[in-house]
Amino acid sequence: xxxxxxxxxxxxxxxxxxxxxxxxxxxxxxxxxxxxxxxxxxxxxxxxxxxxxxxxxxxxxxxxxxxxxxxxxxxxxxxxxxxxxxxxxxxxxxxxxxxxxxxxxxxxxxxxxxxxxxxxxxxxxxxxxxxxxxxxxxxxxxxxxxxxxxxxxxxxxxxxxxxxxxxxxxxxxxxxxxxxxxxxxxxxxxxxxxxxxxxxxxxxxxxxxxxxxxxxxxxxxxxxxxxxxxxxxxxxxxxx
Length: 240
Ligand code: NDP
Fold this sequence. Notes:
The structure is a single chain. This protein has 240 residues and is an alpha/beta fold. The chain is 45% helix and 15% strand. It is built from 7 helices and 7 strands. It has helices at 13-24, 36-40, 57-71, 94-122, 143-163, 189-200, 209-221, and strands spanning 4-8, 29-33, 47-51, 74-79, 126-130, 169-175, 230-233. A 7-stranded parallel beta sheet has the order 3-2-1-4-5-6-7, sandwiched between helices. Helix 3 runs parallel beside helix 4 (94-122). The termini are far apart. It binds NADPH dihydro-nicotinamide-adenine-dinucleotide phosphate. The site of NADPH dihydro-nicotinamide-adenine-dinucleotide phosphate has 30 residues, from helix 1, strand 2 and helix 4.
């Protein structure tokens, strides 16, 4: 059997595409998210499904340990779970900032710490963090989201520097706007509408998530000695 892959945020969007892709390639999987029934509906073989909030370190760690007992050590962790609440800081609910920073930054740190020690011992392993173009440039109404994704860029590069000599790959994908459920987390209907208007400049449809999944697959499938440190991918017609 191939090596174990852990995917967070596997109940929709990129995570769902990744689950199908890596399962079809013969990998056993640990799928993490809160909407367990959606992940069960995929019917994937050799797959452990756990209802875990990535901000809950103990529950996350327990799920990884259980998967490792079943399928062996984690070879790839994809820190994909994330939320985006668009909003203007002047009137946004601070709880939305906290949810984004907790999920998008602490969730990634949690996953990384949980798998890193064993990867260091084994002198192999790959962690791929899903950031965003919002982690490279700013957009109005994205202040806290952008702060979280700049954080993902910073922590990925820092940890890469810390473990590169242990033969561990820390890789990052920065997608542009894509056709997932992400926009639905935003509570302001006006901002959602603005976003949809902006998407019209791309012909109404943004990036298909399957290309984000296949890019991640490409990065992972390269030999362990090769690290695509960062990959930015967006619809050709995305102008920002
Ligand atoms: P979706 O909303 O479709 O997926 C987000 C996933 O994250 C869901 O499976 C959700 O599962 C999970 N999730 C959210 N919070 C938690 C949590 N606390 N614990 C566990 N799982 C959680 O959006 P995407 O697929 O687009 O998002 C995936 C990643 O891609 C995110 O990090 C996002 O920031 C990033 N991204 C997305 C872009 C886009 O335009 N779509 C562009 C750039 C980056 P559940 O609700 O079941 O817990």
